[in-house]
Structure formats: C-alpha cells, structure tokens
Design goal:
It holds the Pfam family Ham1p_like. By secondary structure, this protein is of the alpha/beta class. It has five helices and six strands; from the N terminus they run E-H-E-H-E-H-E-E-E-H-H. Strand 4 and strand 5 form a beta hairpin.
C-alpha cells in the first residue's frame, strides 16, 4: 500500500518508516504542495484538518499526524504549537531554547510532561480512521543526546532516566507517542498490514 505522509519533514517520514517497516510504501508530500491549515485547538483537530486537506489533492490515502509536548506547569505549552513554539519558521534548537527558558523562569529544573500524537488517515473526502496516544514523562532544562528530533533532547519517558535523544531508534520506538499511535492504527485499520493479493 502506498501512503502519503502529510509532511515534508524527512525526520518524521523516516520515523514512520522505521515503525511501520515494510508493510507500506511511505512517501512525503510533493514539495509544491500548499501548506494545510492548522487552526484546531487539539492535536486531533489539526491532524484531521491536514489529512482531509491533502487527501483532496493526492490520489493515495494520506496519513497525517499532529503531535507535541504538553507541560502542565507551563499552562500546557508548547501543546499544539510545539512545532512553532518559538515562532513561525523556528527550528528545533530555537524551540528547545524557548522551552528551557520557560522552565527556568518558573524556577524548574524538570517538570511532568507528556508527548501526544494524533493520527488521521483520509482518502479523498473521507476520514478512514483516527487514533491518539501519549507517553508520560519528564521534561528537563538541559538537553542531552544527539539522536531524534524536536524536543527529544529534553524529554525522558516514564521509567527511563535517558532522554529520547539518547536512545537508538529501536529503543525510542518502545516508548514513543508516535509508535504507540501507529500500533493502535495497525489494530484499527487492518488494510495497513494486509498483504496484497497475488496477481494472476
């Protein structure tokens, strides 16, 4: 099955490919594709907007996810604005720096947090399946590790002293919000793991 991932972020496409393995051919959005609206107040609303927006523009099913870090001590920030926490066009480093400063402004070296991931698959004008998952843990005021992307250098999942950025991809996928959501997606959408019928 060919699935378009609603992103041009190569890190995200690679992570989905690592989690799903060979059960689907995953491709990123064409570079000329316009940007989908992300005006929802929840991860699920934003994932649904993106999935339907791109599904009306490509022929294959579209898998859209919206994910981010939620820190209750910071009023839920970065939340649905995780990718643009430090402003439009901000990169991972700037977003991480802003989060570290926000923690320190509160006098916090670490705080309870969770990563959330909502996934929506749509085809043409119809939503096929929606799933959502999260992983609890701690966010820290100093980055560690060189792996992963986003807020991975600042987040350690519950029961682990290491940050996501200190784990191999295989280790991270045991815990991560995206991996948990994909496993739920595979349960809820059998077409994703169904083998193609042999051609006569």
């Amino acid at each position: 099955m060919r699935i378009v991932i609603a992103t041009q972020n190569p890190n995200k496409v690679r992570e989905f490919a690592e989690i799903l393995g060979s059960c689907a051919e995953l491709v990123p959005l064409p570079p000329s594709m316009p940007k989908a609206p992300e005006t929802g107040e929840t991860f699920m609303e934003n994932a649904r907007q993106k999935a339907l927006f791109y599904a009306s523009r490509v022929g294959d099913p579209v898998l859209a996810d919206d994910s981010g870090l939620v820190v209750p001590a910071l009023g839920g920030a970065p939340g649905v604005r995780s990718a643009r926490y430090a402003g439009a066009g901000a990169d991972d480093q700037l977003n991480n720096q802003k989060l570290v400063q926000a923690l320190r402004d509160k006098g916090l070296r670490q705080a309870e947090a969770w990563f959330a991931c909502a996934i929506v698959v749509a085809h043409r004008d119809r939503v096929l399946v929606e799933v959502e998952s999260k992983v609890d843990g701690l966010v820290h005021d100093e980055p560690r590790g060189e792996q992963g992307f986003g807020y991975d250098p600042l987040f350690s999942p519950q029961g682990e002293s290491r940050r996501f950025a200190e784990m191999s991809a295989r280790e991270k996928h045991l815990f991560s919000h995206r991996a948990l959501a994909v496993r739920e997606l595979q349960t809820r959408w059998p077409a994703l793991t169904a083998k193609a019928e042999p051609k006569e």
